[in-house]
Specification:
345 residues; alpha/beta; Rossmann fold; Helicase, Ruva Protein, domain 3; 2 domains; two-stranded antiparallel ribbon; 13 helices
């Protein structure tokens, strides 16, 4: 069974469910993957050798100090992250889609980031999708055994019509997950953009990909528990990828989410404050303008800056956008479409 949930929900992996129990298909499950003790994520951290004997305050202090490592790891991968942002944005601008794929914590983090894109950027729920081994049930109940099926990840992508124009970010903290490795290899073979994201050096666990992002967070305080530093670094990297891509796609003006989906009172308030801060509109005129634009902050800002009617403003965005900035600049350069007054944003 394949399930795609619209709105601000992510798209999950294929699954078979009996009650609350995830049931594997009749496809073979990979056998022993061998001794993984050489992997960086499996090392014992000497700083926490006496973890079970620490006073609670000392335990917390140790975690706080050690959690500086994810930021350093992400900073060290900045060049690869920038390369990935530009490559993904190019594919999405041409109509492609972005898929995060993983198992366990890695897959759940991908689902989380994908689910946040529609409300934050008003993106199509199909544009960024999270594919988790085991499907929705695996969000709430661990089904890590499914990650050993090397063909399952690719099958989940095929169920979504994954093609050469799409992008795959394969997430595996230890870099050896068959569910992820198999999907990356097949995606690479058809010419899709492939990006690996792992927390071990590439020489320890090579992954088939065009862009290789390694977040070397080191040994966990709880040996092998990659939901800790590795998970934190992965979340940071995914934040950068999705936000950077949406900036490149014109969904941000300055540092404001001008394509925010106005779906509740909090987001309506944010939209009204954007119109106040950038266009100088008080709340009631701003609300009336949002009503005219069906909640589009970007379109409302363009109307406020140019005094165009909604249909003309929408046509301008379609011609010169999707960036508000590029549209404003194009209109300012146009001899017959000068704004009534230069926009202040």
């Amino acid at each position: 069974m394949t399930r795609a949930v619209a709105g601000d929900q992510a798209v999950f992996g294929a699954q078979s469910v009996a009650g609350d129990q995830v049931v594997a298909s009749d496809q073979a499950v990979a056998g022993d993957q061998g001794d993984r003790g050489h992997l960086l994520t499996e090392q014992a951290n000497p700083l926490s050798a006496q973890l079970d004997q620490l006073a609670t305050g000392d335990l917390v202090d140790l975690f706080v100090a050690n959690d500086l490592e994810p930021q350093r790891a992400v900073a060290a991968a900045a060049a690869q992250l920038a390369q990935a942002v530009d490559a993904i944005a190019e594919r999405l601008a041409a109509g492609g889609r972005l898929f995060y794929l993983g198992a366990g914590t890695s897959g759940r983090l991908g689902v989380l980031d994908a689910a946040e894109c529609p409300p934050t950027f008003c993106s199509d729920p199909e544009q960024v999708q999270g594919v988790l081994a085991g499907g929705p049930a695996a969000l709430l109940r661990s089904s890590e055994g499914l990650e050993d099926r090397a063909d399952a990840g690719w099958a989940d992508l095929q169920a979504r019509g994954f093609g050469p124009g799409d992008c795959l970010v394969g997430i595996a903290a230890g870099g050896t997950t068959p569910y992820v490795i198999g999907a990356l290899a097949q995606a690479q073979a058809i010419g899709a953009l492939t990006i690996a994201l792992a927390c071990v050096p590439s020489e320890q666990a090579p992954m088939p990909c065009a862009i290789d992002i390694r977040l070397l967070t080191g040994a966990e305080l709880l040996t092998g528990s990659t939901r800790l530093k590795a998970g934190t670094a992965t979340k940071m990297a995914l934040n950068i990828l999705s936000t950077g891509v949406m900036v490149r796609l014109g969904k941000v003006h300055g540092n404001r989410m001008v394509d925010v989906a106005v779906t509740n009172s909090k987001l309506e308030d944010r939209a009204l404050r954007i119109l106040r801060d950038l266009a100088g509109l008080e709340r009631q005129p701003a609300r009336e303008l949002l009503d005219q634009t069906a909640g589009s902050v970007k379109l409302a800002l363009l109307i406020a800056a140019t005094q165009l009617d909604p249909s003309a403003a929408r046509a301008a965005l379609e011609s010169y956008g999707p960036s508000l900035r590029s549209t404003l600049l194009a209109l300012q350069r146009s001899a017959d479409s000068q704004p009534a007054s230069p926009p202040a944003f």
